[in-house]
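Fold Annotation — chain and its backbone
Next Lines — sequence and tokenised fold

***
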Amino acid sequence: MITSPHEIHALATTEKWQRYLADMRNFSADAMHLETQGLLVRVTGLVLEAAGIRVPVGSVCEVRMEGQAPVPAEVVGFSADCAYLMPTADVAGLASGARVVPRPSPIVPMQLGAARHPWRRHQDRTLHLPVGDGLLGRVIDSHGMPMDRKGAIAHVHKEPLTRRPINAMDRDPVRTPLDTGVRAINAMLTVGRGQRIGLFAGTGVGKSVLLGMMARYTEAEVIVVGLIGERGREVKEFIEDILGEEGMRRAVVVVATADSPPLVRMQGANYATVIAEHFRDRGMNVLLLMDSLTRYAMAQREIALAIGEPPATKGYPPSCFAKLPQLVERSGNGVAGGGSITAFYTVLSEGDDQQDPIADAARGILDGHIVLSRELAEAGHYPAIDIEKSVSRVMTSVASGEHIEAARRFRQLHARHQKARDLIQLGAYAPGHDAELDTAVRLHEPMTALLQQGMHECAALGSSLQRLHAVVSGSARA
């Protein structure tokens, strides 16, 4: 019990100092923090150079001039005291001396005694974009702004554009087959839920139509479509004519057209992946369709060359080949019992060259590849899937032994007919000399019919397998 005047005075002094410290903590939490600002000193091609600003790579800044709307830009590199920024809007009108202001970062209070000051500035200056159920059925750009003129987007919250990858040991393995609604894929290139597969094609061979078929018929709760570097004319056509009203109901479409700055195109691919990750983390099965992975690599090439990175293979700097796996590895299955992202990435083969550096790199990091043939497309064979050059690396894990054996037998007969095609067309083929070739010739028409399918026709996984077994059983009866 306190009785002496000295003890009473000491207690009052302690309470006064505690109130004072509490007031100081509240004041410092609301205090204005001094932000460093830079000045624009150079504009060279796609790159802005700013002096006097020190922020991490990936930070978002604004370039401000009086009488002009701010130009958003992202820090992509630095040299000595100069930061290199890549704009995401038109730079017309900028002049030397424009202010470069970093994106404000929130003040996060800390416990007293945890540091020298009772508050600190949280250094997450990266881009945060909206995700959530409100995006379903909407068409948005790389900044999360609606493009479909349906009003503002509700029921969303913002998340960072970059995420930590899932530990490889925590991922659920691919064990469940996925019905894509495309007979040739279901029967010969069976896809597993959580697989990442490439769609390799040149221009004008029907890859957009095939993507639309998978978007309409694949068993998925949410579809995320990333149209990266596409022509503006093709965007509306893909949504209305190929994706359709049925596919659009459960879809989110992220658009970054070919005339967008390179950083915006890369941002669109990352944004589509973030949206897919958001729904996967909620336990949903997501289908991610990205057209195309090559445009993403080309955008990175433009950025890397602009800031001085030396070119390597066919003009692609090393960073291009480092960015591809960083993007692709974010899709796939989540933790055991959670959701999944089954991803289809289109890869443009320049001049139908399958040894193109981006195509070659993509084959090494994906779980399979579907090759579309220009020769088949010119012959009116749709979808123009070249079965001999295509492979699904997880088919042995998701298909039954009977299915795998039937598909192997189908490939044998198909390859045997292809090798003898010139002899057959010249009339040099005479039946009775080669039993295997005789069987391949006899079954050529039903095999070709199995691989062909109308754009508005859905072929379920079960019916596809029945048809495959029916064709192969014809070879056994021969």
Observations:
- The CA atoms of residues 277 and 331 lie 7 Å apart.
